[in-house]
Amino acid sequence: MRSITSVKNEEIKKITSLKLAKNRKKFGLFLAEGFRICKTLEEGQLNLAQVYFVKEEEENAKQITTNSNLLTLVTTHVIEKISSASTPCGLICVFEIPEQPDLKEISSGIVLAKVSDPGNMGTLIRTCAAMGHHTVVLVEACDPWSNKVVQASAGTIAKVNIFELSWQELQTAKNSIKTVALVVTGGNPPNSICLHNTLLIIGSEATGIPEEWVHDCDEKMSLPMPGETESLNAAVAGSIALYLASTK
Fewer CB within a 10 Å sphere, N or C end of the chain? Predict the structure, then answer.
């Protein structure tokens, strides 16, 4: 087990740079914070690159890996430098970004169309995994390996297959899988739709799904809202739709 005490250490500078998408892409690595999230990622068979922890988190770090070469004891100042949190938890893991699976692996799940809010993306990934679906397709969406997405997913991003495709690539790759667009009005209720062999398309909160993409879908779904509310947050609407259609 190693120890690092300086925030000016070259390795720490590299790890800190992973807060930026361009550096995550450059090094093929991403950050995760907190024992439970890191343990979930590790159990999801993602490749662990390194664990950085303060003394108080040593036992938790050793529950994530028993490989001493992957354990690095650091000071509070170093953890604060690496962390994206206002109050760092004291344990940060670095994982390898997995290769995109073969397109033949696309199955029932969700498509996040132009979803740019990392909190919404992480929440929807978590709901998708909870409902037993294994596919998350991202079309012109934010980086799924940002710290905010990983944290919002509670580590369940390791339990799904992530595909980053263009809309046209998705149309070719989905083969016989049905697509259902979640729209504010004019669609069928969730309890009339089964998500078996189906991809639920969820758009951004600001602009929704582009109209031409909606036209490409096999069916539309809308959530009945008897209250005086025009629309719901993308993560809330998508999660409700996923639950109702998945438990039909």
Answer: C
